[in-house]
Amino acid sequence: MFTGIVEELGEIVRSTETGDDSALVAIRGPLVTSDARHGDSIAVNGVCLTVVDVDGGVFTADVMGETLRRTALGALRPGDPVNLERAAALNSRLGGHLVQGHVDGVGEIVAREPAAQWETVRFGLPAGLARYVVEKGSITVDGVSLTVAEAGDDWFSVGLIPTTLKLTVLGTKRIGDPVNLEVDVLAKYVERLLGDRGAGGAR
User: Fold this and answer.
1) 61: Cβ contacts below 8 Å, ≥ 6 apart
2) Cα torsion angle, 17, 22, 23, 24, sign
3) Mean pLDDT, 10 residues at a time, over the chain (203 residues)?
4) How many CB atoms lie under 10 A from the CB of residue 56?
5) Which residue from 38, 40, 65, 47 is spatially nearest to 10, judged by alpha carbons?
6) Which parts of the sequence belong to the Lumazine-binding domain (predicted)?
7) What does 71-124 look like in DSSP terms, one character per residue?
8) What percent of the chain is helix, strand and coil (3-state, nearest 5)?
9) What is the largest CA-CA distance in the chain?
10) What is the CB-side half-sphere exposure of residue 71 using CA atoms within 13 A?
11) What is the CA radius of gyration of the chain?
C-alpha cells in the first residue's frame, strides 16, 4: 500500500527481456534503495513492483507481461525518469490517499495550461473509468496522488503545484504522453456493494 506522495525522481537504467513477454527492469533510486531489501515493494510510476536485488542505489524488479500490457511501463526506455515511492509504514502520515499500486488503465495528457504559480493538466480517460472519477475526489496519475478539479465523460483535469511540477515526471510530460491511472479503490468497493444490494445480495 502507498500514499501517492512521490519520494524520489528515479531513472530507468536498463530493461532486459526475460522471455514470455516479461522483463527484468533496473531502476536507479538512491533514496528508496537506502533501506530496500529483497521482496520489498516500490511503486514505479504508480506500479507496485517487487524488489529482486539492490546494488549501489539501483534495484531490479521483474515485470510480467500483464503489467507491461496494462500499464505504460512498457514504453519506458533507459534514461527515462520515473516516480518512486516506498510502501507506506503503518506509523507514517497519510499525506495523499490509499494507493494500491494496481493500475486500472492508461490515459494520456490531452492539454496543459500554464498559469503564474501552477499548471492545469487535462487527461484522457480510458472507457469504463470515468464513473470512478468525481470532482474533488482522489486519483493517482503515474503514482502521484492528485485531487480532481473537473471531470467529464472521458477526461478529467487537475491542478499541479510547483512542487509536483518540479519533483515528479508530470512536470516534463508532454501532450500525447501516456500515464498510469489508478482510481480510488473505495469507489470500486462502493460500486460492488451497491451492485450486490441491487441484485438482492445484501440486506
Assistant:
1) 24, 25, 27, 42, 44, 49, 50, 51, 52
2) negative
3) 95 90 95 96 98 96 92 94 94 86 96 92 94 95 97 96 96 96 92 74 48
4) 8
5) 47
6) 1-97, 98-194
7) SSGGG--TT-EEEEEEPPPTTS---S--B-S---EEEEEEEEEE-SS-EEEEEE
8) 15, 40, 40
9) 56
10) 27
11) 17
Residue 107 C-alpha cell reads as: 490515459
Query: Cα–Cα distance between 182 and 125 in angstroms, integer?
Result: 11
Query: Under the phi-then-psi rule, with left for phi > 0, alpha for psi from -120 to 50, and beta for the rest, what region is 21?
Result: left
- What is the value of pTM for the model shown? 0.92
pLDDT of residue 199: 57
In eight-state DSSP terms, residue 2 is: B
Helix (H) or strand (E) holding 166: helix 162-167
Q: In whole angstroms, what is the distance from residue 135 CA to residue 156 CA?
A: 9
Cell numbers describing residue 60: 531490479
Three-class SS state of 190: helix
H or E stretch covering 201: none
The three cell numbers of residue 177 are 504522453
